[in-house]
Amino acid sequence: MFSLKLFIIICVSNIYIYIYGFTIESRYRRSDKYLDLPIVDFENVEKYFPPDEYGIYICLGYTNMNSERERIFKTAQEKGYEILSFIHPTAVVNSQSMGIGNIVFENAVIGPFTDIGNGNIFKAGASIAHHSSVGNFNFFAVNSSAAGKVVIKNNCFLGNNCTIKNRITIADKTLVGAGCYVSKDTEPYSVYVPARSICLQDKKSTDFF
């Protein structure tokens, strides 16, 4: 099974993408190959795949409210790697600005006049409407939806089929559970669950991931 702690080493030539191998932190590595390609320790990945020749996808999930992806992202930058974005051919992306290291899966929609930061993951069918702003290292699960003029800050998790009302702000490290409807601004580290989308006052988002 594909590990969420694997990162893809690639080289881009014109429109072609060549995958040359994978890298993973040594504490997680259990084999030397995946899909018949080499797996090397992230700590010394540059020895095998020099950053002046290869780029890298940071494809971790939402561990610790995306902070693990943020940590690896910044370490890869310090090593000199270009952090690459992936946009699936069926996705519709009309943002006026987009940072680096974003991954946009099948049929996701990012509306016009939106600003997207770095290191976000948009799963299949996720939707961000017009004039919205998305910060860095957020995770949008399948069919999550944000209406127009929404501000989503950093390290947030939006669960499957949740809906964010227009013109509100989702604060840093907010966790929105599957099926929630959020109709007002959130507080940092807040947690919302489907039962009338109430905020769990005694829990922080980091208690769950």
Features:
single chain; 209 residues; mainly beta; UDP N-Acetylglucosamine Acyltransferase, domain 1; 2 domains; 7-stranded parallel β-sheet; 6-stranded mixed β-sheet; 2 helices; 8% helix
Descriptive notes:
- 8% of the residues lie in helices and 31% in strands.
- By secondary structure, the chain is mostly beta strands.
- It has two domains: 7-83, no CATH class; 86-209, UDP N-Acetylglucosamine Acyltransferase, domain 1.
- The protein has a seven-stranded parallel β-sheet with strand order 7-10-13-16-19-22-24, with no helix packed on it. It has a six-stranded mixed β-sheet with strand order 3-4-2-1-5-6, with helices on one face. A six-stranded parallel β-sheet has the order 8-11-14-17-20-23, with no helix packed on it.
- Strand 3 and strand 4 (37-41) form a beta hairpin.
- The longest helix is centred in the middle third of the chain and has 12 residues, at 67-78.
